[in-house]
Design brief:
Elements (H helix, E strand, L loop, with lengths): L1 E5 L3 H10 L3 E5 L14 E5 L6 H5 L5 E5 L16 E3 L5 H16 L28 E4 L3 H10 L6 E4 L11 E4 L2 H7 L2 E4 L13 H5 L5 E5 L8 H9 L3 E6 L12 H4 L3 E3 L10 H18 L14
Parallel strand pairs: 1-2, 1-3, 3-4, 4-5, 6-7, 6-9, 7-8, 9-10, 10-11, 11-12
Helix pairs in contact: 1-9, 3-4
Length: about 300
């Protein structure tokens, strides 16, 4: 019988146990020493690991699953030869909906057009934009990028994307470009949906902002470290970036008094785009499916590339 150790809240541990009646599921603490009898071959832990991860791994663990999609904070050095998987793509639906909401808010000037008093006589002539005919540039076309494309297509948008392996075809109707400079130069909305890796850290620097189409809208639903935030500040003040909708910043949270809190053309949200009813359960269900694969001797889904860190 497969023994599964889980470092999640009680309700999620029960969900896993109910779904895997042919496995022994044991909820364990994420901090402090373990009881001498604790052993297991599979571990479910958080995307950043746990304070006692090294001790848990020494209890017979052969495979680790990170409950989340981004593993940039995971302590890879502790894994040894064990495979690491994650719930890649499990949050694609709510994040894609968030991206569409941000793009619509930008084009329709929300919430700026709400009125709280008698409107000016010419208020109905306020210029509004449209998603129709606009180009979203997707930086990353994995589960999230593909979900954004699927939802943007009915609006009549021209879909372009940049990915690390530009030779791979993208989803139907999405043009894969060879150069990220080409992408940002042609995009009205630039959506960062790439993983944070050594290769993407600081990707959006002064040079890339300099190549950007003036007046573009930047949406980051990935990781704050992908953006050089001081370079972003200069791009906003220069008018290259008309608005930055940021669900991810570096660090999180930003310190009190940070310039992004008060800048009129920055809209911050507290890394919440993944949220929807049942969001945590969807992440856990990806793990449950992987345990069944493990039990059947099938390849695991969501394998993390150690070299690429995603």
């Amino acid at each position: 019988m497969t023994t599964v150790l889980v470092q999640v809240r009680e309700s999620l541990a029960r969900r896993i146990a109910d779904a895997l009646p042919d496995a022994e599921v044991a909820a364990i603490a994420s901090e402090g020493d373990l009881a001498p009898t604790v052993r297991g071959e599979v571990l479910l832990t958080m995307a950043w690991g746990s304070p006692n991860l090294a001790q848990v791994l020494a209890r017979g663990v052969r495979w680790v699953h990170a409950l989340g999609t981004g593993v940039d904070r995971f302590p890879f050095d502790l894994l040894g030869e064990r495979p690491l998987t994650c719930s890649r793509g499990a949050s694609a639906i709510p994040i894609a909906e968030w991206v569409l909401a941000m793009m619509l808010a930008f084009e329709k000037r929300l919430p700026d057009v709400w009125i709280h008093d008698v409107p000016a006589k010419d208020a109905q002539r306020t210029h509004l934009g449209s998603l129709y005919g606009r180009t979203p540039g997707l930086v990353g076309i994995g589960g999230i990028g593909a979900a954004v494309a699927e939802r943007a297509r009915p609006f009549g948008m021209r879909l372009r994307a940049f990915r690390r392996q530009s030779n791979l075809a993208g989803p139907a109707g999405v043009e894969i470009v060879d150069s990220i400079n080409d992408l940002v130069a042609s995009s009205d909305h630039i959506v960062i949906a790439a993983p944070a890796t050594p290769a993407t850290r600081g990707l959006f620097d002064a040079a890339l902002f300099g190549a950007m189409k003036p007046g573009a809208h930047l949406v980051n639903v990935a990781r704050g470290a992908i953006v050089d935030q001081e370079a972003l500040r200069h791009a906003i003040d220069a008018g290259t970036v008309a608005l930055a909708s940021l669900d991810a910043v570096d660090p999180e949270p930003l310190p009190a008094g940070h310039w992004m809190y008060r800048h009129p053309r920055v809209r911050l949200s507290p890394h919440i785009s993944w949220n929807m009813p049942g969001a945590a359960e969807i992440l856990v269900d990806a793990f449950i499916d992987n345990v069944r694969r493990w039990q059947r001797g099938e390849p695991l889904d969501g394998i993390v590339d150690r070299a690429a860190h995603y």
